[in-house]
Structures are given as structure tokens and as C-alpha cells.
Amino acid sequence: MLSIKNLTANVDGKEILNGIDLEVKAGEVHAIMGPNGSGKSTLAHILSGRNGYQVTGGEVRYKGQDLLALEIEERAQQGLFLAMQYPVELPGVNNMTFLREALNSIRRARGEEEIDTVSFMKQVRVKAKAVKLDEKLLMRAVNSGFSGGEKKRNEILQMAVLEPYLAILDETDSGLDIDALRTVADGVNLMRSPERSLIVVTHYQRLLDYIEPDYVHVLAGGRIIRSGGKELALELEARGYGWLLEEVAA
Amino acid sequence: MNRHLQEQIEAASGYIDDLPQESGEWLLGQRQAAVQRFADMGYPHAKMEAWKYTSIDNLLKRNFNTGHLPPEFPRHAVVRQFNQEPVAGRLVFVDGVYQSDLSSCEAKGISLGSIRTAMVSGDRAVLAAVGSLSGLGEHAFAALNLATLHDGGVIRVDEGVEVAQPIELLHVTTRGAEGSALRSRHLVLLGEDASANLIERYITLDSKVACFNNLVCEVSLAKGASLTHQRVQLESSQTYHLSELHLSLAKQANYHGIQASLGAAWSRTTIHNRFADSEASCELDGLYLAGDGQLTDIHLDVDHAVPHCDSRENFKGILHGAGKAVFDGLIQVQQHAQKSNAHLHNANLMLSRRAEIDTKPQLVILADDVQCSHGTTVGQLDPEALFYLRSRGLDESRARDLLCLGFASEVIERFTSESLRASLTEVIQHKIGL
B80 and chain A: CB distance < 8 Å anywhere? Predict the structure, then answer.
């Protein structure tokens, strides 16, 4: 699904990623953890195609193609999805319209027919219910005046509607209380399938209680310094990041 | 005195001299006084604050004629432009000429007609109202309008009558208007506690036609009356459009104006509101769009001369290509106008580096117990928002369209007519389409 080899990248001339290697196969869930400033979000942003980063070396292959050569929308059309840490408010853009435009853009790009409005709306309502997003918010402007939790649920709703092959959740747990966290995690778990891969970027272990990863990677100083199973996350939760950083430095 | 001005004075005087007998005597005195006013004032120029950014050079160069041919047009082409939802009544003007066979009025308690008919029949109530709010004209074009006004709509709603469906005032220009200055004047008179919804639209059937649409609209709301006024200007890219709207609101009257200025090469809209008595409210929402070769100019002059009145003004502009817009919003709160609420906002979305906006919101407050605010923004599309949309699969041009429509929607959604909202959305998309 995704293969990252020796990826290095700068922001404003400062090296943020310092040789990332990561293999994600179909159906796998990978957690990327790490202290603040370790480059976790930068990695997520680069994969989504966001501006402001200079890739200085290495390569990223997604479903056999050079991911970094694709436009932002082409990545989405080919099934890559980034659930954002800070979802953007779009004043005046109706949430339902936005979802339909997004889905139809993806369908058109794949040579599929556009979805008809009635069945689309039905489908969105069912999916909104699953992430406990108030139906009224579907008729409001995208994220405008939404609470932090509502924005995150709206991200997961988009993911459920767009049905990506590879979803990256960038600190989706930040700012969520425990109930909202559980709802969001339930929504994500509904999406798990042998054809779909997930990369869960998080600072804390608690999200991983609900979204159980197959692999856990620790990112520090722009590199993956340790990889392991889900028990690595528990160890980090108990002991913090300090010991690991010291061990690696030693 | 320059030659152009002299010619126009002669043309206007000639027009008055040649008015057919059946035009009646009623407006003759006012027409002549307006010619004199025009001669005294001369044309506005760039040294006048209100015209500083709005050049009339090209307008004068075009030398539009006062007289024009009677319109010839395919009837179905005009009918096709009718509002798609049912209306309580309709007034249709083609090239400024009233079309009685296309006009209709079904509802009780409202009367629709034309100024010309009122002139012929000597309808005192109507003729006395002509110019009662506008005076002889604040500038040359308004004075010329009164001097040589040809026709216009008269809309009266009787005391206590609430008209549920909208009334449509449709002004269509055709090839027959080529080279002409059309001078129309509309009157809207609502009796006490009457309420109505007016859709006023200006459209061109032939995209190549060049004319000058110089119009004045006077709206008087009696005590407790309420008017929703939806105005759309969607004229050809060769048209010059000048619109003066005068409002007078009696005690507890409510006026809500929603306008979209989307077409014409050069368009200027001025809205004057004087609160005649307390507890009245005036809301103005506007959207303007200007692209290559277009200038759109909005002037507001809202005068809180009496206490306990509310006004809200929200104008949004989208500038693309080499489009140019002027926004000059003046809200005054006089010394005795305590407990006034006035909120003025102007937001501009610049889609190109070549676009230009000259915006000047002004709040002049002489009273001390008031709630007033004003603000202006000039900005571009939010790159974060563009990224967000693209990351969901929308290509860049579609993402831009959605964001622009989102920006405009705050005003569009104020239009009460669903078909109007849909067609405006389509027009905007078409005009800014990348």
C-alpha cells in the first residue's frame, strides 16, 4: 500500500524529517507516536501533499506510484485521506454539498458515475449517526462554529463517506473527551478492513486502547527510532519517551 | 460650459417641448426645474469625493441619446425571463417602455401601473410622489432622469394589505436600446401596515447591446409597513447602469433590501435612506461582482435623524480579473438619534492581483447612547481552505468555486426567491469560472 524509503524533508531550511522508512501493507494499522516536534505531523502533511515542505531525499510509493509526484486532489482521488488535527472552517459551504462534491470528484476521477442525491443523503445520514454527528450539522457550513469534538467527528464522517484505501489520522484524539474519543474510535474501527490501511498519528497511547494497532513506531528527531507491536505503546504510556531517547542516544 | 453638457441641455429641453399633449401638465414644472438643476451642476468629476474612483469619461464618450426607437422584440424571449415562482403581479418594461400585455395584477389591494399612465390620467397621488424623495437630483444624471423621464413602474399596496407572493418588476433591454439613454423612474408606495415583497430585475436580451440605464426608484413605507426588496442587475457587459434608490420609512416601518450587482460594464448604485420616524428598521444586503472591463460602485447614505431606529448594512464583493469596485458606505447618527443601532460591514474577496477595490465605510456618530459598528475586510481565498477541499478530492478550480460561492452565500441566502437564489448561484459560478 505505502512504502516510504529514507525520506528527508525541510521546513524553511530546517531539517524536520531525517530519513524515514516505513512499510504499510493493506489491512494494517500503524501507530506513529513520538514527542512534540518529532516530525509526526510533518510526515502526515507531506503524505497528503500540503505545501510548505521541501522533500530533500528519499521516495514514497503509494499503490505502486510515486506519491510525491501527485497533486493534492489526485492523492485523494486515488484513495488517500488525511483526517486533520485542525479541520478548517469553510464559511458558507454547506456540509452536505461539500461531501457530495468530494465523493463525486473521486468517483469521476475513477470513471464512475456520480451518485444520485437521494441515495447519497440517505447514506450520509446513516454514517453521521454512526459517529454521533448531529444531523443538523450536515446542513450547516463545514466546521463553521462546530465544537472541537464535532469537527473531529466530521472528519471521520468524511472518511466514512469517501472510503479511502489509506487513511492517516493526524492527532485525531487531541481535544477530545473520553466519550468523544470512544465514538471517534468506533467510527474508525467500523472502517477497518483487509483492503484498507490506517496510519494513526498520536502523542498519547489512550487512542490506541480503542484503535488497536498492528505496529507502533516511535518518531523522534525526524527518524523512526523504534518499531514494535502494540505493547510498545503501553510501555511508552508507563515510562514516557525519555528512556527511549536516552537508550537510542547511548 | 462644455459642448457635451450644452448638447444634453438642449436635448433635454427639446424632449420636454416635444412631449405629447397626453403627457399632461403635471410634471412639466419639475422637468424644467430639473434641466436647470442639471445645467447648474454640470457633470460630476474626479475632484468630488463621491466620484473620485468612478470615472464617467467613457459614459460621456458613448454619447447615449435621449430618444430611442419603440422596442421590437420576440415576446417569448421576455416571457422566458419571468420569475419562475408564482407572483402576485408583474410589471414589465422593455427598453424602458411599459408593456401592458405582458404585465398583470391578480391580487386584491395592490395596484400596479406605469408613471406614463398616471401622467395621462393626471393621477395626483402618483404624480405628487414623483421626486418627493429624490428632489431634483443630487447629481447631473439624477436631474436628467427627472427632466426626461420616460416611464416607470408604480406599485401601490393598500393599507393593511399583506401580499404573500412577490410582485415582479422586470426591466429588459433589447437591441432596440442600442445607443440610448433609458430614463426610468419607479415608485413604490406601501400604506399603513401593508407588507409586500418586490423582485426588481434588470436584464439584457442581447449581450452586445450598449445602452445607459439611468434609473431612480422611490420607496415610501407608511407607518408599520414592511417591504422585502430583491434587486438584481444582470445587464450586458456593454451597459452602463446607474441606479438611485431613495427610501423613506415612517414609524415602525421595516425595509429589507437584498441586491446583487453582477453585470454591466459600469454600474453605480446609490441607496439613500432617511428615517422619517422612530422604531423603523432598514436592512441592506448586497453582493457585487466585477471582472475584466467592469466597474461596480456602491454608495450608501443612511441617515439616522430620529431616535430608536435600527440599520444593518452588509455588502460583499468578489473581484476577479481586472475588475474594479468602489464601496462608499456612509451611516450618520444625528445628535438626537439616541438608541440607534447601526452596523455596517463590507467584505471583499480578491481573486486576482489586477483587481481593485476602493472601500470607505464611514460611521459618523453625533449621539452618545447608541450601538454602532463598522468593519471592512479585503482578502484572498484562504489557502488552508483550498488545501482542505483539494485534500478531499476536489480539483483546484472547483475548490475555488465552492469557496467563492460560500463567500457570496451569506448574501445570496437573503434572497427569499428560491429560483433567484439558484440562478444567481449559477451566474456567479459562470462569471468567476476559471
Answer: no
Closest Cβ opposite residue B394 in set A92, A105, A158: A105
pLDDT greater than 80 at residue B100: yes
CB within 8 Å: A90 and B385? yes
What is the rounded average pLDDT of the residues A151-170? 94
Task: Show the 3-state SS of chain B.
Answer: CCHHHHHHHHHHHHHHHCCCHHHCCCCHHHHHHHHHHHHHHCCCCCCCHHHCCCCCHHHHHHCCECCCCCCCCCHHHHHCCCCCCCCCEEEEEECCEECCCCCEECCCCEEEEEHHHHHHHCCHHHHHHCCCCCCCCCCHHHHHHHHCCCECEEEEECCCCECCCCEEEEEEECHHHCCEEEEEEEEEEECCCCEEEEEEEEEECCCCCCCEEEEEEEEEECCCCEEEEEEEEECCCCCEEEEEEEEEECCCCEEEEEEEECCCCEEEEEEEEEECCCCCEEEEEEEEEECCCCEEEEEEEEEECCCCCEEEEEEEEEECCCCEEEEEEEEEECCCCCCCEEEEEEEEEECCCCCEEEEEEEEEECCCCCEEEEEEEEECCCHHHHHHHHCCCCCHHHHHHHHHHHHHHHHHCCCCCHHHHHHHHHHHHHHHCC
Identify the pLDDT of residue B68: 63
Closest-CA distance of chain A to residue B196, Å: 28
User: For the residues B80-85, what does the mean pLDDT come to?
Assistant: 91
- B391·A106 Cβ contact <8 A: no
Asked whether the predicted pLDDT for residue B1 surpasses 60, the reply is no
**What pLDDT digit, counting tens, does each position of A192-239 carry?**
999 999 999 988 888 888 899 999 999 988 899 889 998 888 888 888
Among chain B residues, CA nearest to A158: B392
Chain A neighbors of B403, CB-CB under 8 A = 90, 93
Closest-CA distance of chain B to residue A92, Å: 4
Q: Does A105 touch chain B (CB under 8 A)?
A: yes
Please state which CATH number belongs to domain A2-249: 3.40.50.300
- Across the interface, do A88 and B384 touch by the CB < 8 Å criterion? yes
pLDDT band at B170 (very low <50, low <70, confident <90, very high): very high
